[in-house]
Amino acid sequence: CQLVKLMRRGEQVNMSKRSGDFVSLLNVVNEVGKDVVRFIMLTRRNDAPLEFDFAVVTEESRDNPVFYVQYAHARCRSVLRNAAAEIPSLDLSGNALAAADLSRLTHPDEIALIKSLAGWPRVVEAAAHSHEPHRIAFFLRELSAHFHTLWTRGKEDASLRFLLSDDKDLTTARLALVSGCALGIAVGLRIIGVTPVEELR
After folding, report:
1. Considering only CA atoms, which of 43, 44, 173 is closest in space to residue 98?
2. What is the per-residue burial (b if ≥16 Cβ within 10 Å, else e) of 35-69?
3. What is the Cα–Cα distance from 49 to 11, expressed in whole angstroms?
4. Given CA atoms 82, 87, 88, 94 in this order, what sign does their dihedral have?
5. Which of 167, 18, 171, 145 is nearest to 71 (CA)?
6. Local structure of residue 50 (DSSP, 8 states)
7. How far is residue 2 CA from its own chain's centroid?
8. Dihedral, CA atoms, 85, 111, 192, 53, nearest 10 degrees?
9. pLDDT, tens only, 125-175
């Protein structure tokens, strides 16, 4: 059981069982979509109260956990599409990425993303064992934060960009990391019944 307080434009949506004045879950799903509802409901333990703010779940910002995670996945997929277009000679097959020399990944933000990905099996096991699916939502938010940080570093420092035409080995290693991140987010979202998006428009 989860008590949910609905908010709209900063004000609580008043409901009363006695007067029959309430907002059904179907109404909420019809307004914001099932993926948003599923993800937001899993940002709290199932016995903890939840504040569902319509304004937050429809805005495109880091305050909206659904957008933040979906944006990370879309960015990963965009990097891989750009790599195929900009460096057509690069082998982006699963086998090539699996054989990448990951020792080339030495920046602290790359290591942080690797460590986050490495924790995924334990997160799934713990969530299943304790019947706490919110752990997966937390993991996805954390993984996305690490990826967004790495993305931003590449914008600030050209040497940290994912695509380096003069260093194909490092590019392949970074793309292997990006591919792993995309896979981790996609699998995590599918486990909780949310469809990962390829691009945001």
Report:
1. 173
2. bbbbbbbbbbeeeeebebbbebbeeeeeebbbbbb
3. 17
4. negative
5. 145
6. E
7. 23
8. -90
9. 999 999 999 999 999 999 999 999 999 999 999 999 999 989 999 999 999
CA separation, residue 1 to residues 44, 85, 189 (Å): 12, 49, 22
Provide the whole-model pTM: 0.85
Q: Token pair for residue 9?
A: 């434009």
CA distance 76 to 83: 11
pLDDT for 41 equals 80
Query: Highest mean pLDDT range out of 4-13, 38-47, 104-113?
Result: 104-113
User: Angle at CA 152, nearest 5°, toward 150 and 153?
Assistant: 65
Altogether, the residues listed in the chain come to a count of 201
